[in-house]
Design goal:
The protein is of the alpha/beta class. The chain has three domains: 155 residues, K homology (KH) domain (GMP Synthetase, Chain A, domain 3); 161 residues, Rossmann fold (3-Layer(aba) Sandwich), CATH 3.40.50; 159 residues, Rossmann fold, CATH 3.40.50. It contains 14 helices and 19 strands. The strands form five sheets. A six-stranded mixed β-sheet has the order 6-7-5-8-9-10, sandwiched between helices. Strands 12-13-11-14-15-16 form a six-stranded mixed β-sheet.
């Protein structure tokens, strides 16, 4: 049996039985097919079992478990994901839901999606990130964006309000502004209204928590916000949501004005980093002209600067962004809004080049910027800038810092450059191409399940409380970034999920792209 060592690695010892990913004896599930022989390493392998046969066997095994409607939508009879599309090839219109904490934004998201996708709890601040979902109403598909409310911190409330609302508004076609009809308009609501009035996009004022006809008059007080007629709904009970969606759909364009499709033209590259790390210098050197203002004063760039550049025969769209400062939520004025535009530029990019100043110690600020890229799901390239200023002593310390602080992104391509002199600038091209190719990668469901079956045979999940979670089936539901769903009989340890991700990289590369691995835990149907 395979056991887990204290250091977290999985070590093999001789096994008496070989199981496939569903936990059923391999000889039983594949029509009695037995092992053909032993290979040169002494490992058994199937002589006649193909990926397609194994896929059908694992797919049929799912019939024994309780599946929800959206589970069935994920896989067809041949095991392929029915809704798989290259995400950036779509230009679906975008609807953003904004509002104060605890007004029912996530509950409304779940009501529109028809399933419990967003986490809902009766306290403010549960949702913290902007999360996108693919939704549809009356055969009209669109992207629904759930945003976090504002933290109940008086010192940072204005910055948090602007951070959530400004970015959500900039990256959508239609805004749904949710207000608690029972509380009525507040000072925080009026602050958001000021942001909404500056946009030319349609805004729907949603009066939530109108659970019955008796409460409808309470929505009338929201006329004072100046956004037109309030739409009374109850996200909890679904009352009025259908009428609201009919109006929202009518206001949506056929194609989004903000969603970034996969174009035949230049790929979009966002340049990120701390202030004064050399982003503008890199853009100028690549463009061959003074496209962006460069100064020793940190924070010179405030607005994202787009420029098509040609490097080593390839044309790219480089986006120079403002440097991301510490505790940006506490900043006000131009620096604060510059950080918002930087976040928006990253959302619209396909790959991010994070510049790191090699003359300075790798800081928590650098790591936060890298985490921001990972959270966005964009491809990642690390560019170590000012390499021409690096001496031998600093080089030794830098190698240790990379090994210690950047181990979680060891899969990201690394390039040593000098933006000031243009040294090794051409090395960015293969790094960008590799990262984008990984970001676009699609693994057929048959191959992915064959990979999972082999992995579980060699390294089963360790026992937890006398039970062993089993992987029933897996499929890739999207790329950009590659996202996989595993149907399991129990919760997989985070350590085991990282092990699966590591083996995915060993088998399929994914150099320069994050990998998202989700689980759907399902129970066996009771016997009749």
């Amino acid at each position: 049996m395979t056991t887990q060592r204290n250091d977290g690695d999985y070590a093999d010892v001789p096994e008496t039985e070989v199981f496939d990913a569903s936990g059923v004896l391999a000889e039983e599930i594949i029509d009695g097919t037995e092992f053909a022989d032993m290979d040169d390493d002494g490992d058994a392998f199937y002589g006649e079992v193909t990926d397609a046969e194994r896929l059908r066997a694992m797919r049929s095994n799912l019939d024994q478990f309780s599946l929800e409607d959206d589970d069935v939508a994920l896989i067809s009879e041949d095991g392929e994901f029915l809704g798989f599309k290259e995400q950036a090839s779509e230009t679906l219109p975008v609807v953003a839901i904004v509002g104060r904490p605890n007004v029912g934004k996530s509950a409304l998201v779940n009501r529109i999606l028809g399933r419990r996708e967003a986490v809902v709890e009766d306290k403010p601040g549960v949702t913290r990130d902007r999360v996108s979902y693919r939704a549809d109403w009356n055969d009209k598909f669109f992207t629904l964006v759930d945003t976090g409310g504002w933290e109940p911190d008086a010192k940072g409330i204005d910055a948090s309000v602007a951070l959530q609302a400004e970015v959500a508004i900039e990256l959508c076609d239609v805004v749904m502004f949710v207000v608690d009809s029972r509380v009525g308009p507040t000072a925080t609501d009026e602050h958001v209204v000021q942001l909404l009035r500056r946009t030319k996009k349609p805004v729907f004022l949603v009066a939530n928590k109108v659970d019955d006809v008796v409460l409808e008059p309470e929505a009338a007080q929201l006329w004072s916000l100046g956004l037109g007629e309030p739409k009374p709904v109850s996200a909890l009970h679904g009352r009025g949501v259908a009428d609201l969606l009919d109006e929202v759909i009518a206001a949506l364009p056929e194609e989004s004005a903000v969603a970034q499709p996969r174009l035949a033209g230049p790929r979009r590259v966002a340049l990120l980093g701390r202030p004064n790390v050399g982003k503008s210098s890199l853009l100028n050197k690549a463009a061959g002209e003074e496209r962006a203002v460069v100064n020793e004063l940190a924070g010179t760039t405030r607005d994202p600067v787009d420029e098509q550049v040609e490097i080593a025969g390839r044309v790219w769209t480089f986006v120079d962004t403002a440097g991301i400062r510490r505790r940006v939520h506490m900043h006000k004025g131009a620096d604060f809004y510059a950080s918002l535009r930087t976040t928006a530029a990253l959302e619209k990019a396909e790959v991010a080049v994070v510049l790191i100043d090699v003359t300075q110690e790798i800081s928590d600020q650098d790591l936060r910027i890298i985490d921001l890229v990972l959270e966005s799901g964009r491809a990642l390239v690390l560019a170590f800038n000012k390499w021409d200023l690096l001496d031998d002593d600093r080089r030794r310390y830098l190698e240790r810092e990379i090994e210690k602080d950047l181990s979680h992104v060891e899969w990201a391509p690394r390039v040593n450059i000098s933006a000031r002199t243009g040294r090794h600038l051409e090395k960015l091209v293969p790094a960008l191409e590799t990262a984008l190719e990984s970001w676009d990668t699609r693994i057929p469901t048959a191959k992915f399940n064959a990979f999972v079956a082999e992995l579980v045979q060699e390294h089963p999940h360790p026992l937890r409380g006398g039970k062993q979670p089993r992987i029933l089936f897996g499929t890739q539901v999207q790329n950009r970034p590659p996202t996989f769903v595993l149907f399991t009989t129990g919760f997989l340890d985070p350590q085991y999920r990282r092990f699966i991700q590591r083996r995915l990289r060993e088998n399929y590369g994914f150099e320069g792209s994050p990998i998202v691995l989700n689980m759907r835990i399902r129970e066996r149907r009771p016997r009749a």
